[in-house]
Amino acid sequence: MLKKLAIFFSVLLLLSFYTNDQAAEYKVNTGSIAFRSEASLELIKAMSNELKGLIIPEKKQFAFRVNVKSFKGFNSPLQQEHFNENYLESNKYPAASFEGKIIEDIDFTKDGVYSIRTKGNLTIHGVVQERIIKTELTIKNSNISIKSNFTVLLADHNIPIPKVVHENLASEIKVEVKADLVKK
Questions:
Q1: pLDDT at 19
Q2: How far apart are CA 70 and CA 94, in angstroms?
Q3: Most CB within 10 Å of its CB: which of 18, 21, 124, 126?
Q4: Which among 120, 112, 117, 121 has a CA at the least distance from the CA of 139?
Q5: What does the domain layout of the chain look like in residue ranges?
Q6: pLDDT tens sequence across 91-119
Q7: How far is CA 131 from CA 27, 86, 156, in A?
């Protein structure tokens, strides 16, 4: 029940970002998230082009979300099925998200490339982990682009690796996020 309440409030917070009319907002125009599992016997890669999200510069807030079932590119359809049914349980936990604040002060009116840190809650498989994630933020002609690479430990999100596949599935997953945002 507590998990459902936390998810409900996270969704409310995310929706409040979308309905705030007082501050300038940047909404994802195009966005992708990819992951790699580099285990001793197998390389697994998948990607989604359905990243959603926004940044509110005035408040230094952000929220990003992806539908777990939108990932494509596995080594086989069976592998994709196992990803959704056995590991991420996407019917029970349909989305992964990251929401929080930008740590550094940035002048969003000035073009440039900025190395920033973002602090927030990374939610995967229904488990919330507070994270600080480094991000490259580019401002050009009043548009924003972001790039970020980070790792996710499956154990941190209660995603078990059965012994039968421990050499096929890495315990640490590499994630890459790219997005172009436009003023809303």
A1: 46
A2: 10
A3: 124
A4: 112
A5: 2-183
A6: 999 999 999 999 999 999 999 999 999 99
A7: 22, 25, 11
Q: In whole angstroms, give the CA distance from residue 85 to residue 68.
A: 11
Q: What is the CATH number of domain 2-183?
A: 2.40.128.110
115 exposed, middle or buried (CB, 10 Å; 0-12, 13-18, 19+)?
exposed
Q: CA–CA separation, 118 vs 149, rounded Å?
A: 12
Report residue 95 as tokens: 């989305």
- Which of 66, 64, 61, 63 has its CA nearest to residue 35? 66
Here the tokens at position 153 are 């430990």
Q: Look up residue 7 and give its two tokens.
A: 């998810």
**Mean per-residue pLDDT for 163-175?**
92
pLDDT the model gives residue 23: 67
Residue 21 CB contacts under 8 Å (≥ 6 apart), including other chains: none
pLDDT above 70 coverage of the chain, percent: 88
CB 54 within 8 A of CB 63: yes
